[in-house]
Write a structure and sequence with these properties.
CATH topology of one domain: Alkaline Phosphatase, subunit A
Helix content: 40-55%
Shape: globular
CATH superfamily of one domain: Alkaline Phosphatase, subunit A
CATH architecture of one domain: 3-Layer(aba) Sandwich
Number of helices: 29
Strand content: 5-15%
Oligomer: single chain
């Protein structure tokens, strides 16, 4: 071959190489759609074998992608599990061990940050306060939709989450303005979390007895909306879709009704489906155990982004393509028993074959023969259990534990978290499994019993609740929450001596119990022992100075004692902690009125009505200020609203009659005065005014 010809061929190869390099640089980036399904068990989806499920969208996604049959969450809780998905780190490594306590450290890179740095538009849309931006998962998202203000009314007014259709609406609106560039879009659908709605408007009676499955069918519809958008915009064939659950739900298995307290597969086994048209096989199923810690490196490898997998995370792409993979050791944990009541936390290791749970009484299950984890083999397979304990210890030793970055939640945020079924900052400190702490297996019946008692109290069945609580505190003498609830129930029965005795017995065992001091103050105040109540409120505030409720109760009690000036700063402190505390505005207004500061009082009454338009006392007190000023029309308007709120209050009708009389409307005034006397025949002021009106009409 001549030298000239050789050079020509070499040049051709160089040109081809350059062409391939340019093509590689110009190759369109894949979009990424991540949909996380809160509280979703894998075994309640059709593609995972549930025959009566209504999940056509998820089934189709699995048929066109890869389904991981045995994916496990690192924790049965929303925030820790999502932090793992977006960082590739287990909870000890990223520091988020429970909901509502900590913020993801800024030093930990997130998936959104990595993609944003490479030119991706990034939008995240979450349905629950548990994933609020203050917890740190918003990092890297140019748009982070976490505003719960637009939440639709649910069956319980306090539930701080948005229905899936609202989250999808926001995500679709964002996508419509960003699909021209490569994007990362994360959509979090919370609906399968309790309380479950049967959605009869969508499904009729199909799920009347299976509302949990109705919620899963509902989120399946939301996923369909997102996929339809991709198809309409012609970008479905270049969008990587990852759908996964953050944790499951007990649904009564192992005595666990919901999630968080135990780490059986009912709350750890979650769906994981990955679809990448033309790049991953259709209808493939991976049977080996995988962890949600692996999602982070899987997405990055699929996008051809070179980023070293942190910790023990590994990409699942090879497994998705059918290549052999090394057996996985899946780590999981929960500290919730400790935070709830000082019971032992749990740690576990799951393999293709075995499940080991480190607890005061250790557990071992053969998942190949006993997938429901019903037969503990700890005593009969001691050698296998010790081997798994050593492997778990090795996995833990390879983690670099990170100190959690504690954050302060406002009282309103604490109530939001509590309304979702979580305890915020109930018990802090080191949480390690220990044989001397109570085992959740023994304590779960007591937890469920207290849950039942709460329902009785909400239904007004106080006597029945008290009888069950008496038994509960005997059976679980270390369960402080049950003892507090019993004392509260005594207060509701007006058995104040029993309530006081109950709270004092708690303080004898635990002199630092803020709850006992606070509730003892309530019982003493109800007895009229105001000075003693103040002492106990102060003790409680010393232990929890950020409690708006304590500040309010202390201020109210001081005001009742006539110490108005001393009460005012406590109402102000309550409002600083919770600017939406309507009753605190009312009490502050009344205290200011007693100090002769009528204008400020009225301002507080009107502010209270902005937060609670049905505040009877705010309407009545505002009316009294207006009437004192001679502004009778404004007073009448507030009194008419008050009468609609409580038409059986004699004082409202009397006041309305008096205001109408002052405006020269005797006939209308007489009707209200007569109604006041019908409701309260011995109302002296109403009788006197009626006589004046009658005399004036003669």
């Amino acid at each position: 071959m001549s030298r000239r010809r050789a050079v020509g061929i070499l040049g051709l190869f160089v040109l081809v190489g350059v062409a391939f390099a340019v093509w590689g640089l110009q190759r369109p980036k894949w979009n990424v759609l991540i949909v996380t399904l809160d509280t979703t068990r894998a075994d309640h989806l059709g593609c995972y074998g549930r025959t009566n499920a209504l999940t056509p969208t998820l089934n189709a996604l699995a048929a066109n992608g890869v389904l991981f049959e045995h994916a496990y969450a690192p924790a049965p809780l929303t925030l820790p599990s999502h932090a793992t998905m977006f960082t590739g780190l287990n909870p000890p490594e990223h520091g988020l061990r429970t909901n509502g306590q900590s913020r993801l450290p800024d030093a930990i890179p997130t998936l959104a940050e990595i993609l944003k740095a490479r030119g991706y538009d990034t939008g995240g849309f979450v349905a629950s306060f548990v994933l609020d931006s203050k917890f740190g998962l918003d990092r890297g998202f140019s748009t982070y939709g976490d505003d719960m203000a637009g939440a639709a009314p649910a069956d319980h007014a306090l539930h701080r989450y948005r229905a899936g259709n609202l989250v999808s609406d926001e995500a679709l609106q964002w996508l419509d303005g960003h699909f021209q560039k490569p994007f990362l879009c994360w959509v979090h659908l919370y609906d399968p979390h309790s309380p479950y709605l049967a959605h009869p408007n969508l499904f009729g009676d199909r799920f009347k007895d299976r509302p949990y499955d109705a919620e899963i069918a509902f989120v399946d519809q939301q996923l369909a909306r997102l996929q339809d958008f991709l198809k309409r915009r012609g970008i479905a064939d270049r969008t990587l879709i990852v759908v996964l659950g953050d944790h499951g739900e007990g649904l009564g298995e192992h005595q666990e009704r919901k999630h968080g307290k135990m780490i059986y597969n009912s709350t750890l086994h979650v769906p994981l489906i990955v679809s990448m048209p033309g790049m991953l096989p259709k209808g493939a199923r991976v049977s080996g155990a995988v962890s949600l810690v692996d999602v982070f490196p899987t997405i990055l490898e699929a996008l051809r982004i070179n980023h070293k997998a942190p910790g023990n995370a590994r990409s699942l792409l090879a497994a998705a393509r059918g290549e052999p993979q090394q057996a996985r050791l899946c780590y999981s944990e929960t500290d919730e028993p400790f935070h709830e009541a000082g019971w032992s936390p749990l740690r576990s290791l799951t393999t293709d074959h075995w499940k080991y749970i480190r607890a005061p009484r250790r557990e071992l299950y053969d998942l190949t023969k006993d997938p429901a984890e019903l037969h503990n083999l700890a005593t009969t397979q001691a050698e296998q259990m010790e081997s798994l304990e050593q492997q778990l210890a090795k996995v833990e030793s390879q983690m670099a534990p990170r100190q959690e970055s504690n954050i302060e939640l406002s009282p309103r945020e604490q109530r939001a978290l509590a309304s979702l079924g979580y305890v915020a900052n109930a018990k802090t400190g080191s949480a390690t499994p220990h044989a001397t702490l109570p085992d959740i297996k023994d304590m779960m019946p007591h937890f469920n019993e207290l849950d039942d008692v709460h329902e009785l109290l909400e239904a007004g069945s106080v006597d029945a609740a008290v009888e069950r609580l008496k038994t509960l505190v005997v059976n679980a003498p270390s369960y402080e929450m049950a003892q507090v609830i019993l004392g509260d129930a005594y207060t509701r029965q007006k058995k104040y001596d029993d309530a006081v005795s109950q709270f004092k017995s708690i303080l004898k065992r635990n002199p630092e119990s803020e709850m006992a001091y606070s509730h003892l103050g309530d019982a003493l105040a109800a007895q009229g022992k105001l000075a003693e109540a103040v002492t106990n409120y102060r003790e409680a505030l010393h232990r929890d100075p950020n409690s708006d409720g304590l500040q309010y109760n202390l201020g109210r009690t001081l005001a009742q004692m006539g110490n108005v000036r001393e009460a005012i700063p406590h109402f102000e402190a309550a409002l600083e902690l919770d600017p939406g505390f309507a009753n605190a505005y009312v009490e502050l207004g009344s205290a200011l009125l007693r100090e002769g500061r009528a204008d400020e009082a009225l301002e507080n009454y009107l502010t209270a009505l902005k937060y609670n338009a049905l505040s009877l006392h705010a309407h009545m007190n505002a009316a009294s200020v207006y009437a004192a000023r001679g502004e009778f029309v404004a007073a009448q308007q507030h009194l008419e609203k008050a009468a609609k709120i409580d038409p059986k209050d004699a004082n409202i009708h009397y006041s309305l009659g008096a205001v109408l009389a002052a405006q020269g409307h005797p006939a209308s005034a007489t009707k209200h005065i007569q109604e006041a006397l019908r409701l309260q025949p011995d109302h002296p002021a109403a009788r006197e005014l009626l006589e004046k009106l009658s005399g004036g009409n003669r």
